[in-house]
């Protein structure tokens, strides 16, 4: 038996003529009820939570057991099944940070009028995977999608370095030599460590004309459902046009994208609606 059986109209005493949609609604209500319990739940409890007659709940649960969406435990109890884990892993694997970011990025660009970049880490560099950009930016250089830049010279790169431990940061310094692009570039370990400590404390990062003279950047982290840093969202603009209040909008947008990746903020995190 497979899950297609659940789509069929079930005719049982007192329920003749119920549609497949009603069966699906009841199935989802049972899954939601099961999700509320860390341990297995009894048929009686599940029927009470969903408002279903025990015989109806039992029949639907049996169908879900047959297709591995629910597992039956000792004493006739029930819990969520491994099939849901398999499907969840497929959804997670197919989540694209680029897809999750496109609409929020364009909204932020519309708000600020400045270039918004989405970047990920590849080795010792960041790679620009998407951007929202207009000709009025006035910047000499706009990083093309697929372009790369050293971690220590970019705001997003600093986010990734700040997530590394001290040994990993020193190894990065050894590998790259901390070569600079402008007079503002950080080119020694002591300055880099101080900068990364500040990034950890503030939860955001800045590039003060370190990659390109005249251009500054602000960056906020994008996290996945495990809280892992998977990408960075940055706003790039001529230094004389940078506004401090853009940082909050940038952080709110990064959090919105993170939620789209399954991230759930901790209760201790400040609300994005507060100053």
Structural features, described:
With 275 residues, the protein is of the alpha+beta class. It has two domains: 3-92, Arc Repressor Mutant, subunit A; 95-260, 2-Layer Sandwich (Beta-Lactamase). 41% of the residues lie in helices and 18% in strands. The chain is built from nine helices and eight strands. The protein has helices at 20-35, 43-50, 54-66, 82-94, 97-112, 155-162, 166-176, 189-202, 246-260; strands spanning 70-72, 78-80, 115-122, 125-132, 148-150, 204-208, 215-223, 229-238. The strands form two sheets. A six-stranded antiparallel sheet has the order 5-4-3-8-7-6. A two-stranded antiparallel sheet has the order 1-2. α1 packs across α2. Residues 3-17 and 270-275 have low confidence and may be disordered.
Straight-line distance between termini: 54 Å
The strands making up the biggest β-sheet line up spatially as 5-4-3-8-7-6
- What is the CATH superfamily label of the largest domain? GAF domain
CATH architecture of the largest domain: 2-Layer Sandwich
Instruction: Summarize the amount of helix as a percent range.
Output: 40-55%
Helix tally equals 9
- Elements, N to C (H/E): HHHEEHHEEEHHHEEEH
Top-tier CATH class of the largest domain:
Alpha Beta
Concise account of the structure shown:
The chain is of the alpha+beta class and 275 residues long. 41% of the residues lie in helices and 18% in strands.
List keywords for this structure.
disordered N terminus, 275 residues, Arc Repressor Mutant, subunit A, alpha+beta, Beta-Lactamase, two-stranded antiparallel sheet
